[in-house]
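B., you asked whether I could sanity-check this one before it goes into the benchmark set. Here's the sequence:
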Amino acid sequence: MYSFLKFLCRIILYPINGMPKFENKQRIPEGNYILVAPHRTWFDPLYFALAASPKEFAFIAKKELFKNPLLAYVLRHANVLSVDRENPGPSVIKEPVKILQNTDKSLIIFPSGTRHSQALKGGATLIAKLSKAPLLPAVYQGPLTFKSLFSRKKAVINFGEPIYLDKSIKLNEEGQKAVEQQMQDAFDKLDKEINPDFKYVDPSSKK
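And here's what the prediction gave me:
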């Protein structure tokens, strides 16, 4: 199902918006990793998964998306894990760690948690610490709404250098902030590599 859905994304996105540009794929590490990125549009997970192909990914999504039985079926077969953002339990961390340690799947996480937040949260760092998988920063620049895909503005994915957590790092407030700053610095650098004048504008703020 995952391979079919990836193929389906290609035959929908590429004719509409053209071939995307994937930069610095040589920075992608061997083995499993946690791809971390700012969440800028509902379809940027699709572009990240396509950019890092043939690697297969698992994703984390809010439980509300699973209320529709048909959508829930598709999400589960696309390696999407449900999370209750209001009352997250231990499985929010345990399941991704198991996937990274016991399968050949990597993980895509948006540390801000939502498309409408720029604040970084600690889940990705904790999962990286427990699984011993590196964090791989990446950014998406391009259309931000489905309608704007038809503008043919090129979608660009840029990969950064992996962040390997020191075994001795303590994930207290100070340690967490240090890793979050590393991620944010990487995102800023990657954006500037694509476009030195880039500035993200949340499309919902224009309404």
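One thing to flag: Residues 96 and 127 are 7 Å apart (CA to CA). Otherwise nothing jumped out at me.
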